[in-house]
Sequence to fold (292 residues):
Amino acid sequence: MYTIGQISEMFNLPISTLRYYDKQGFFPGMKRTSGIRKFGDEEIETLKVIECLKKSGLELKDIRQFIDWCARGPATYPERKALFERQREQVEGKIARMHKVLDMLKFKCWYYEQALADGGEEKIKAMIPEGLPGEIRAAYQSAHQE
Amino acid sequence: MYTIGQISEMFNLPISTLRYYDKQGFFPGMKRTSGIRKFGDEEIETLKVIECLKKSGLELKDIRQFIDWCARGPATYPERKALFERQREQVEGKIARMHKVLDMLKFKCWYYEQALADGGEEKIKAMIPEGLPGEIRAAYQSAHQE
DNA sequence: TCTTGACCTAAAGTCAGGTTTAGGATTTAT
DNA sequence: ATAAATCCTAAACCTGACTTTAGGTCAAGA
Fold:
């Protein structure tokens, strides 16, 4: 069993955030001794899931909904499964979009490297898109499609 | 030249957002005819860069800083280059973290599929982590390390 | 015993990034 | 020429996710 301060260090989250999560109902079974919160294995796993679902783009109220499903037992397995499948798709899409962002950034890195070497942008601008070197052209086109 | 409504459709952004960006100084050279905004190629490229930098995790005030650098000419090439290199690293890190999130989600998808098949979680919980099938064990361990 | 550090609550405050509202002006189609 | 759609501004409002404040309780070491 851990105190709020230990969990704060463990997860690198402010104490105020942990209290806020508790107030929002994320730790329904948490024990206390004379008012002081005791975080156990269950709460630690919950925090891992909160972090995961947050990073997947879910809002706290929807994470709260998941916590409620957990408390309602096996009858909600289908909802929980569907949630994770949905978030999995979301994250797969997100990663794909991030690769496009990365292509734009790669192009811009090259662009300013050239601009710095040439002392201006005119020469580069005239190269877009046909005259760009192969790898850069691919990044440019990936970033500018649609 | 395009009206705000056309740009709104083109980028799938609310008109109010475009006006908000304008008010924040993102289109310093934008023309108007009798008060009505005219978006040109420059503004379109700016919007693409805003979208890219936003998705890379940059705040609007830092994107605004970049716009100001652009207006100050070639003297700021080093700052602009450094910005894109920094954001490129950020996004590479972000993608790596998203793969870990994805591993957690894959594990949870499998978990609830099993729970649904078994009618309970006891059997699965007893398998963690040694008894898990290879691919699932890898995802579990990737998601639970540190 | 006393004091210091870690814990507690409720309620108000903060911040980013917009969105809505209210009241007009302009442009386009009929 | 008039009606409908689209544009404008300033200012107030909103949302999510915390954080800070103010005032107090608890536990462990000197």
